[in-house]
Amino acid sequence: MARMSPDRRANVLLFLAAVLSSVLLMTAAKPSWSDALSSWYNSDPHATAYAGVHAELARVFAEADQRHISRTLLMDRLQEGVAKGVLPDRLVSAMHGELTLLSRARVIVEKAKCAGNIFSPLKNETLKDIAIYLRSGLSDDIITDLMSAGSGRPGGKESALAACGAIMDLRAVAPLEDADSLQIGKLLMASGMQPSGYASLALVYGLGISRGLNHDALVHDVIINTLSSGGGLAVMTQKIETTPIAEPIPQPLLPRTHPVSAPAASEKRIPRR
Amino acid sequence: MNDTCQRVDAAVREWESGTISDIQNLFFIINHSRACQRCESNYGALLPLIRRDAGERSGLTPYEESPSPDFTSRVMRRLGRTKVYRFSGSFAHTVRWALPLAGCAALLLGIGSFVVQADLRSAESVANVVFTLEAPSASRVSLVGDFNGWRPEALTPKAGGQGVWQISVPLRKGAVYTYDFLIDGQQWVADPHSETQIDDGFGGLASVLRL
Predict the structure, then answer these.
(1) Chain B positions in Cβ-Cβ contact with residue A172 (cut-off 8 Å)
(2) In Å, how far from its chain's centre is CA B112?
(3) Selection from B138, B182, B135 nearest residue A83 by Cα
(4) Which is the CATH superfamily of the domain at B126-210?
């Protein structure tokens, strides 16, 4: 620095000033982004019904900041609750529940060591997807194991998330145990199938049930054995179709965990204007 | 008009229509035009021709008037106000100009290719999903989900035959969406065609769509 000419020193100072200005601008822009809750209260006419719980909601959002959870994810759930006209107390309770789910999702990501670095930061979508899987009933351990299996591989995270989704869909129609769920998820990820194809597993299961196969035969003989031996959906379908149709269908598809079209009629709602 | 003046006139006309071929002829014309009172009018016409041809042929030096006596002092005054960059050598010159320029060019190329690739990726990664709901008694149906910010007015399926409401929505692949139908602005209904429905945390259900 001491040997620099005055012109060059001026250029260096100009450059440092430009960098500093950019940082200050970014810092100044942050409050407008992070104060999404207040903006919502000021802009949405439906927010007046929730004026009484503003402080509680603000606390939930502040806690989210402390846990490094994006407010955007909470705003999404807030908008869902408001659109559905839930009562203020119910909304606050649901937001606490959502924050817990997102925190569990974050722990899963960190345990699986697939948290983003400076070049590929952790996406909100990843946390949101995991939170949905948790809400569907998948255990933290299954998701963590699958995410760990995909960690460090190209496309591993997407593959793991797709495997979680396939298991979620399968468990919606089949009484699948955790051990089988994890095994199927890992086999799917190792199968070389495109992650978008994992979703067809529930359909294959449904096809097997309709052909009269029982649950154990379908899960172990058809799905797990086929995937273990390097086969895919085509082989599973072939196995099912070559199986003679049993007279009665021994085990129908499980009824859905929740009845379809259940808007909770007993639940009090705030009517939309 | 003497022979010399006629010769200069002819040479100027010839020059105007083309280029002068003989340098000696050029000096002759210039010198005569400056000296001869009759040919003085030609002098003004010569300068644009000289400028036009200057540098086009080797050895041709554009004619310039002698500098005024205070020319040097004016130039030096001006130089005193002008920022002069001095380079210690060819390497310093390269570092100062060529590397930043190359960096800017690489940055622009990188941004351009990223934008193009992002467009291609986004075009490939969007799927048109058709949502349908059988609701014969409904007078109005909305498709509401996290893909439209849970705004009931954003997506309104059209009624088809036999009370089937249908709408096609472009959605990004590789994501998980939650949504519901809203019938007549009052009744929230999970999609009976969705593979999975989960507890929405508000006392109802949310349909899950994974692309």
Answers:
(1) 195-197
(2) 11
(3) B182
(4) Immunoglobulins (2.60.40.10)
Q: A158 exposed, middle or buried (CB, 10 Å; 0-12, 13-18, 19+)?
A: middle
Residues 6+ apart with CB under 8 A from B149: A76, A79
Choose from B134, B196, B197 for mutation: most chain A CBs within 10 A: B196
> Token pair 């460090």 is at which residue?
A152
Element (H, E) at A10: helix A6-34
A contacts of B150 (beta carbons < 8 Å): 76, 79-80, 82-84
Of the pLDDT bands very low, low, confident and very high (cuts 50, 70, 90), residue B207 is: very high
Asked if A165's CB is within 8 angstroms of B205's CB, the reply is no
> A128-150, pLDDT tens digit by residue?
999 999 999 999 999 999 998 88
Bridge partners (DSSP) of residue B82 are: none
Other C-beta atoms lying within 10 Å of the C-beta of residue B13: 11
| ipTM metric | 0.77
> What is the per-residue pLDDT across B154-195, written as a single tens digit (0 to 9) for each?
888 888 878 899 999 999 888 899 999 999 988 899 998 888
The token pair that represents A72 in the structure block: 């955007």
Total Cβ atoms within 10 A of residue B21: 10
B143 in Cβ contact with B157 (< 8 Å): yes
What residue spans define the domains of chain B?
A: 1-76, 85-124, 126-210
Statement: the pTM of the whole predicted model exceeds 0.90: no
Query: What is the average per-residue pLDDT within A250-264?
Result: 49
Chain A residues near residue B188 by CB distance under 8 angstroms: 84, 263
